[in-house]
Amino acid sequence: MKKCFVLLLALAFLPLPSCTEEKDNLISVAASEIPHAEILENAIKPLLEDKGYELEIKVLDWTLQNDGVLNGDYDANYFQHRPYLEQFDSGNNQYDPNYSYKKVFPVVSLHFEPLRIYPGKKDASEFEKSKKESTYEICNDVSNEIRALDLLKESGVIDSYTLDSKGNPINLPENIKPISESLLISSLQDYDYAVLPTNTALTGKLSASSTLPSEGEEVKDLRANVIAANVNKYQNDETYKKKIDVLADASLDASVAKFIDEHYQGVITVAQKDLRKA
Q1: Same structural domain for residues 154 and 100?
Q2: Residues 146, 170: contact at Cβ < 8 Å?
Q3: C-alpha angle 160/165/166, rounded to 5°?
Q4: How far, rounded to the nearest angstrom, does the alpha carbon of residue 157 sit from its chain's CA centroid?
Q5: pLDDT given at position 217
Q6: Domain containing 176 — which CATH number?
Q7: Does any domain span residue 184?
Q8: Burial code of 233-249, b = ≥16 C-beta within 10 A, e = fewer?
């Protein structure tokens, strides 16, 4: 009995595995389901495994993802373009290409999802003849709202639009309705047309029409979707910085571009760019 007690006492003082050590090779990323989580799972995760890292992907509502990274719930997120991220980081709706990120910053850009007009109650064939008087639903977060208004302006639906001093669209025509992203698909048949982000359309299994307007390559760099990380942790935590750099390097691999090209067939396009020094 005494020997057993001595053995147990000795075991009690043995060093236990460090929780920190166990997490040093785990990278957690919050992402939208389509196409972001698909790209992470099928193209980036195998590359990280080859480098000895485990990728944990959490599909999460996009309105929660930046706070999740800022609060340390996730190492990074993947769902947004830079204007949306800057809007969160600065609290200002007016995009500044020279802005210095303070909370969450873009690490790499990865792919471009053109904003498109999709048919609702009306067919694509009716668009040109009825576009001025047709009704439209658009996403109600400011960066995507402005993006939709730009496309509607370029398409001849509206002549112009007005922003207030904080960069918010105001006095929209009655035929244009901002809607929460989570409701855009379910309310599609309430409007003649919808101006949708590609991931929203993919989630709703909508097919794009080649005859309806979409964003062009000229906005690709600005509107490319990015992987974003925590500014403070990247600057002050070497273990965290290493994980984010490994994730970034994997994201820029040529095999990831090949997956995007082959799997999405041009619905989304490759936009790989290292933003860590941008």
Answers
A1: no
A2: no
A3: 100
A4: 27
A5: 87
A6: 3.40.190.10
A7: yes
A8: bbeeeeebeebbebbbe
- Is residue 175 classed exposed, middle or buried when 0-12, 13-18 and 19+ CB atoms within 10 A define those classes? middle
Domain count within the chain: 2
Phi then psi for residue 60, to 5 deg, are -145, 145
For residue 5, being part of any structural domain is answered with no
Percent of the chain with pLDDT over 90: 78
Both structure tokens of 32: 């939208």
The pLDDT tens digits for 21-52 are: 448 999 999 999 999 999 999 999 999 999 99
> Residues 101-120: pLDDT tens digits?
999 999 999 999 999 999 99
- Provide the domain limits for residue 196: 116-215
Q: Taking the model in full, what pTM does it have? A: 0.81
